[in-house]
Write a structure and sequence with these properties.
By secondary structure, the chain is α+β, with helices and mostly antiparallel strands. The protein contains eleven helices and 21 strands. Strands 6-3-2-10-19-18 form a six-stranded mixed beta sheet, sandwiched between helices. This is FAD-binding domain-containing protein. Pfam families: FAD_binding_3.
Amino acid sequence: MTEINIENTTNTPLPSSSSSSSGSGVPLPVADGPPRVLIAGAGLGGLFLGILLERAGIPYEIYERSAELRPLGIIGYDRILFARLELQDMLFKKIPSSKMHMSKKIVSFQQDAEGVTVRFGDDTTSHGDILVGADGAHSTVRQHLYKSLAKKGILPKTDNKEMSRGYISLVGTTEALDPAKYPGVLDEDSESYFVVGDKDTPYTWVTFTVPGNRICWNVIIQLGITEIADDQFKTSDWVPQENQKFMDSIRPFKTPYGTLGDLFDATPIERVSKVYFEDHLFETWHHDRTVLIGDAAHKLLPSSGAGAVNAMQDAVILANHLYDIKPTSFENIQSALKEYKEERFDAVKDQYPQSHMSAKLIYGHTLWERIVRHVVFNWLPKGIQHRQFLKDTAYRPQANFLPQAPKRGSLEVIPQQPSKRTEKVENEAKKKAAVV
């Protein structure tokens, strides 16, 4: 891989956020138009950010290392439930084809007072004002950025730590099933079940129905409980053949639809994925012209179902601050990225311990975790659960450059931060009206 260099590409040192000129006394470039944004990654966060920037009139390009989008799992909310790929495809179609670039693997980038230049594996480059790392938990943008900051001695020690890995998941979705044998697949609501293995196994398995007469299944293995499970995942290759071997070993596990083996038989092996459940809350979300969103900035355990939501909330808040950049200057870009992190970090930090507790309740197999699960599900007062629900649902950020969605229910909502740019325009209009 090409050595990354994120230092100044000229002999002029990068200015601080309070500087208005370079060290040579030459004024830094300032543009009246909006910043040009380069987005690395066409996941939910990157695509959603692209759609918001399209509405905000901010030029952007999206670069995805894969040749095509692939299924990544299942998400759902209330009665709206569909494959994650279908949501990605819906967002993908909202992006003009001229702004979507597939098979673009980032190998290096350079940023200075005049912009950021990204180099790809095909030896092409792209230049912009801001680089957004929306490229997932193992973000190439983050790795390169952190490598540079570590060389300078300004990367926090916590950002050097590897992500925690406490669980491994095997997930798949069946082909269309016969409703006569699986009547639950026809229900309007999703029919879901969690089965926690006994104290001698490290397994939890989950099933829930999805549109198209299909059932999604998921087997979660807690590491550190039995040597058999740990050894298997230390030595096995993550390929379909090895997935099949593991599936064969757990076929007898019972579900409301028969055994897991019955569901495995209805699932093409190429649609089975094995992934680590990793987590880490990074401290560094931005530096100079580079900023991280989604899993690239904060990888939460999927137990609380907040990963996709947080990525899109990141996109909303970042888009708001990018919209407020006027004029486009290095100083204003730094301020916008700093304010984005300040507005989002605490909200994500509050969810981090919740995802751990949810994982213990759903996937935990130690004696202590079993005790906690029994207490929470049988003795925890409903009032405490309700208060947590109210707190979680109060955070609903919106794009402040678009008409605001009205409050339709009775639950409290955290006030939306207004757009500085919009406020400035409105105040200037009021002053002109007062003079007239």
